[in-house]
Amino acid sequence: MWSFQTDPDFQVQLDWMMDFIKHKVEPLDYRFPGHGAPYDVSNADSRAAIKPLQDEVRKRGLWACHLGPHLGGPGYGQVKLALMNEIIGRSAWGPTIFGTAAPDTGNAEILAMFGTDQQKAQYLQPLMDGDIVSCFSMTEPQAGADPKEFVCRAWQEGNEWVIEGEKWFSSNARFAAFLIVMAVTNPDNPPHGRMSMLIVPTNTPGVEIVRNVKVMGDSHDSDDGTHAYIRYNKVRVPLDAMLGLPGEGFKVAQARLGGGRAHHAMRTVGKCQRALDMMVERANSRRSQGKLLAEHQFVQGMIADSWIELEQYRLLVMKTAWVIDEVEAGRSPPIAPRTLIGMCKVQMARVYHDIIQRAIQLHGSLGVTLELPLANWWGGLASLALADGPTEVHKVQVAKSLLKRGAVAPGLFPSEHIPTRMGTSA
User: Fold this and answer.
1) pTM of the full structure
2) Residue 4: exposed, middle, or buried by beta-carbon count in 10 A (0-12, 13-18, 19+)?
3) How many Cα atoms sit within 13 Å of 211 on the Cβ side?
4) What is the pLDDT of residues 95-125, one digit of tens each?
5) 264, 388 in Cβ contact below 8 A?
C-alpha cells in the first residue's frame, strides 16, 4: 500500500534520534575529526566517548537495524531504515553510533547470508557488536571496479587458498580486523563466474599495505589516508575461509550492494537537509544591500531550488526502499529494485553537488573555510560519484532497463504520428 504516513510509535523513535544526533552525535565530528576517526577502534579516547552513546541507542532498540529477521536482525524493513538513515547521515559519526557504518553493514549482510556458523561466530558477531571493523577488498589498480578485468587470483594448495595480487582503494583496511577479498579462483569460467570471496584476517602474513591513499579533505601532513593500496603476497588462508561457493564472488558482492546504496542515498538526504538548514539560517540572519538575504529573489531561488530538488530525490529514495520491502515480502520480482537503486546512485551526487554548492555560496568567504563543515562536505563530492560504482555505469544500466521494455515503431512513422493515427497518411 502506498502511504506517506509514519507509524506514530516509530515517529517517536525518529524524533528521539533527531534530538540525539543534533545534540550528542554531531559534536563528535569536531571533537574527533578525520575520515578514518569513526573506524579507529584503537583510539581509546574516542571509544570511551562513544560507548555511552551506543549504549543509549541499544536501549532504544535502534542498534544495527540493517539485518532482516531471516538474517538475525530486527527486521525494520527498508522504509524505516531509510527514515533512520536520513537522520543518521547528518553526522560522520552517526553510522558508528548506530551500528550501521559502511562497509561493515554490507559485510555483515553477506556474512549472515553466506557465512558458516564458525564464520558468523568469529567475524559477524563482533562486527555486529561494534567491537571490530572490516574491509571490503575488491577494486584493483588496473581495473577499478570492473570485475571482468580483475587479476588478483587465488589457488588451492593442499588445505589452503593462496592469494596473490593487488587491490586498490580498500577502505578502512588499516583499522580492520579482517578483509573480504574478491579473487579469481575459476579463470576458465564465464566472466561473472570466475571470482570467489575469501575472508582474510588483516594480520595474516603476506598482507602488505603499500600505502594508505589520501583523498580530498585529508591533510597533506598527517598520516590520515584511509583507502589502502594492498599487495597480497601469497597470503594463505584455510579452505573454509571462502564465503559461498567457488565462482560465486560476483553473486556475493551483488547481495551486499543494493540495500547499502539505498542507505547511502538516504544518508546523503540527511547531509543535504543539514546544508539546507544552514542556508535558511544564513538567509534569515545576514543582511546585504540594506535587507536580509532572505528578501533577495536570487537567494529565494537558491533555497527554493534546493528544497524542491531534495524533496524529489527523497521521494525517489523512499520509493526505492518501499520496492525493496515489497521484494522481501514476495510481492514484487527480485529484479524490481535494481533500476531504482541505479537512479538513486546517479542522482545522489548531482543533488549533493547543487545543494552544497549553493550553501557555500550563500555563506560567502565563510563557506569555504574550515570553520564551517561545508568545505569538508564539498571535498567528499567526487568520491560520492565514484563509490559503489561510477555514475556513468549506473546511467547505462538505467537506460538499458527502459530501452528493453520500450516499444518499436509499428511502421515507417512513429506511433504518435498524427496523420497515421487519423488514417490520413499517404
Assistant:
1) 0.89
2) exposed
3) 5
4) 999 999 989 988 998 999 999 999 999 999 9
5) yes
